[in-house]
Amino acid sequence: MLRLSTGWIFILIIFIAFSFLLFNVTAEVQEVKTISDVLNERANLEEIVISKNSLIYDRNGDVVSEVFRDANRIYLPYEEIPSVIIDAFIATEDQRFFEHKGYDAIGIGRALLQNARQDGIEEGGSTLTQQLARNLFLTHDQTYNRKVSELLYAHELEKNYTKEEIIELYINTIYFNNGLYGIEAASRYYFNKPSERLTIAEAAFLSAVPNNPSHYDPINNSEQTKLRQEWILTKMFEASYVTEEQFEEALEEPIVLNVKQKTDLYPDYVTYIHQEFKELVAEAEGYKEKMLQATSDAERTSIEQALQERVRQLLASGIHIETSLDPFLQNLAVKAIHRQVPDSDVQASAVMIDHNNNEIVAITGGKNHKKFDFHRGFQNPRQPGSAIKPLLVYAPYLDTFNVSTQSSINADNVCFGEYCPRNYGGSQYGMVSLTTALKHSYNTPAVSMLDQVGVDTAFQYVEKFGFSSLDQRDYRLPSALGGLTYGVTPLELTSAYTTFANDGTYHPSYGIRSVTDQDGTILYSWELNSVDVWSKETNDKMRSLLSEVLKSGTARRAQVPASYSGGKTGTTNNYYDLWFVGLTDEYTTGVWVGKDKQASIEHLNDKAPHLLIWQELMR
């Protein structure tokens, strides 16, 4: 009986132990992953993302800036890769490429035998697929562990992609030294022409580089590159990719490099376009709205970082940014500023807008502006002086009271409580017309008009322009004379003046026409919104007033032969800033002159560089 009990107890213990073991084994089996699962966890094999150059174009469709960070790559789809390039790499790197499944057993065996003889890793036996796997996912360490990983990745690549897709990825990812990835970037850099125009000799010459990019650098080691080119041509001939005649001609053809540096023109304009692109993405993808709703600095910082990362991703995806840049006017603006403002410590900025199409055609960031430096065209709010009067005072006054341009206003000195503005030099002019008051830029009439309209009412007009640096402290009478807390940028003020060219309706102006992918599909474009600021009747009166400023007022030196021209000067206290913003029937242009660290430029006032720059541009 005791034996029977002991037996049952033993069986029960074994059963419990077996059940426990079975439970754990089942759990372990459920955790087992396939090689595909493991590799996909480490790298996304199903969607390989390769950085590509983005391009910025001017209004004529010409590339003005190539955008890339570490990898200069112009991606080519398979059908656009020259066959001679494919032939060169297959002949020299992987003659059985279209037959194997990612690895070549014969090649591996040959490599193992060679390595055994040399007592080290001298030969890899890697297929093009293995090399692609190494370029995409692995290091270039010469170890057997890396070789095994390379084989596994290559096998998975062959399962997920066609041979054509693999050779496309390979040709676009191989390194050609000097920061160049892919045959197209290499061809354009070393020979200054697209790869489709390469001769057989040139194609073989470039195909030599990826084997050892620094050793076969076409610029510094061209003799070594030429030797490998001859070996490549021999392999191509042996594999019947070229005829004997082609082979002989290619051997004899001299290789003449024509190195072309990265295209990076018009740094002032391109710097602005990068900022506008960021704003466009923020608007289109909701970052701007999130920023407005953020309740803490930490949250705003997080949103800003996410936006910057999104912009970086887009620029690495190979987008095309079409702009309204007019190269002639951009160059003219830069040169005019240098001519009229020779003083080394004085800066200037100009903005030109095609107000018929709401397009920024030129914008300068300052003298000798370098790409991504501080940009005085859109990053430099300054007090506008009297240049604010048409927007904040005269148009609201005319719109509110519907008076004529010849109606009278008091131009004597006057006090508003403790605030007592004075005209330039303290002069008093008695009762004058609105035309006279504006064209001579009298101060006291402007303050009187703002007082009559009401500060809040007048600012309701200006708020429609979206000036980014307006402050609640600006809602006071001294603002009639441009005494703003921070001020406005040349771009903001010029854009606001386009309202005078559009019957009192404000249309925001942009430099970007559209953003497309490489296939031409539009990804982003601005929604062309508008807002009515004042009536057409008011606008017609303002155009008349602004015209008199050039005909017989403070801007006589800026006169141009145009069917219409009008504008307004602005000078801030102590001559810290000189402004002129004006328009013709085609363009609205604004010019600012001053020092970065506010200081007097009174010595330039009589020379009127702001007027002469404007005149040069608007002729």
UniProtKB/TrEMBL annotation:
Catalytic activity: Preferential cleavage: (Ac)2-L-Lys-D-Ala-|-D-Ala. Also transpeptidation of peptidyl-alanyl moieties that are N-acyl substituents of D-alanine; [GlcNAc-(1->4)-Mur2Ac(oyl-L-Ala-gamma-D-Glu-L-Lys-D-Ala-D-Ala)](n)-di-trans,octa-cis-undecaprenyl diphosphate + beta-D-GlcNAc-(1->4)-Mur2Ac(oyl-L-Ala-gamma-D-Glu-L-Lys-D-Ala-D-Ala)-di-trans,octa-cis-undecaprenyl diphosphate = [GlcNAc-(1->4)-Mur2Ac(oyl-L-Ala-gamma-D-Glu-L-Lys-D-Ala-D-Ala)](n+1)-di-trans,octa-cis-undecaprenyl diphosphate + di-trans,octa-cis-undecaprenyl diphosphate + H(+)
GO molecular function per UniProt: glycosyltransferase activity
Every Penicillin-binding protein transpeptidase domain range: 349-585
InterPro entries, A to Z: Beta-lactam/transpept-like, Glyco_trans_51, Glycosyltr_51/Transpeptidase, Lysozyme-like_dom_sf, PBP_transglycosylase, PCN-bd_Tpept
Ranges in a coiled coil: none
UniProt cross-references to NCBIfam families, sorted A to Z: PBP_1a_fam
Protein name per the record: Transglycosylase domain-containing protein
